[in-house]
């Protein structure tokens, strides 16, 4: 194996936004996470919505009309020839 090509594998302090912290090993000194096993709904058994930047509302607004607006077919253009022949 070649020497000095692998990063150092050191102890890492992991801190969660809920306040929980623990140590593990990684190539980084410190990690910050949004969700850990102490606050994740699967591990706690409590239902909790994790909404980052209003994603649920954005999704609901997108489908409020019933479909994508970009996929709707444009309305057919009416011919103006009939209106000009009356003159």
Automatic annotation (TrEMBL):
<dbReference type="GO" id="GO:0003735">
    <property type="term" value="F:structural constituent of ribosome"/>
</dbReference>
<keyword id="KW-0699">rRNA-binding</keyword>
<comment type="subunit">
    <text>Part of the 50S ribosomal subunit.</text>
</comment>
<keyword id="KW-0694">RNA-binding</keyword>
<protein>
    <recommendedName>
        <fullName>Large ribosomal subunit protein bL31</fullName>
    </recommendedName>
</protein>
<feature type="binding site">
    <location>
        <position position="16"/>
    </location>
    <ligand>
        <name>Zn(2+)</name>
    </ligand>
</feature>
<dbReference type="InterPro" id="IPR002150">
    <property type="entry name" value="Ribosomal_bL31"/>
</dbReference>
<dbReference type="GO" id="GO:0046872">
    <property type="term" value="F:metal ion binding"/>
</dbReference>
<dbReference type="GO" id="GO:0019843">
    <property type="term" value="F:rRNA binding"/>
</dbReference>
<feature type="binding site">
    <location>
        <position position="18"/>
    </location>
    <ligand>
        <name>Zn(2+)</name>
    </ligand>
</feature>
<comment type="similarity">
    <text>Belongs to the bacterial ribosomal protein bL31 family. Type A subfamily.</text>
</comment>
<dbReference type="InterPro" id="IPR042105">
    <property type="entry name" value="Ribosomal_bL31_sf"/>
</dbReference>
<keyword id="KW-0689">Ribosomal protein</keyword>
<keyword id="KW-0862">Zinc</keyword>
<dbReference type="GO" id="GO:0006412">
    <property type="term" value="P:translation"/>
</dbReference>
<dbReference type="GO" id="GO:1990904">
    <property type="term" value="C:ribonucleoprotein complex"/>
</dbReference>
<dbReference type="InterPro" id="IPR027491">
    <property type="entry name" value="Ribosomal_bL31_A"/>
</dbReference>
<keyword id="KW-0479">Metal-binding</keyword>
<feature type="binding site">
    <location>
        <position position="39"/>
    </location>
    <ligand>
        <name>Zn(2+)</name>
    </ligand>
</feature>
<dbReference type="InterPro" id="IPR034704">
    <property type="entry name" value="Ribosomal_bL28/bL31-like_sf"/>
</dbReference>
<keyword id="KW-0687">Ribonucleoprotein</keyword>
<feature type="binding site">
    <location>
        <position position="36"/>
    </location>
    <ligand>
        <name>Zn(2+)</name>
    </ligand>
</feature>
<dbReference type="GO" id="GO:0005840">
    <property type="term" value="C:ribosome"/>
</dbReference>
<comment type="function">
    <text>Binds the 23S rRNA.</text>
</comment>
<dbReference type="Pfam" id="PF01197">
    <property type="entry name" value="Ribosomal_L31"/>
</dbReference>
């Amino acid at each position: 194996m070649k020497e000095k090509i692998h990063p150092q594998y050191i102890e890492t302090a992991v801190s969660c936004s809920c306040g929980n912290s623990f140590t593990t090993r990684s190539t980084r000194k410190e990690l910050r996470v949004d969700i850990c096993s102490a606050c994740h709904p699967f591990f706690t058994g409590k239902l909790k919505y994790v909404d980052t930047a209003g994603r649920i509302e954005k999704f609901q607004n997108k489908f409020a009309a019933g479909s994508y607006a970009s996929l709707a077919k444009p309305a057919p253009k009416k011919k103006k020839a009939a209106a000009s022949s009356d003159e």
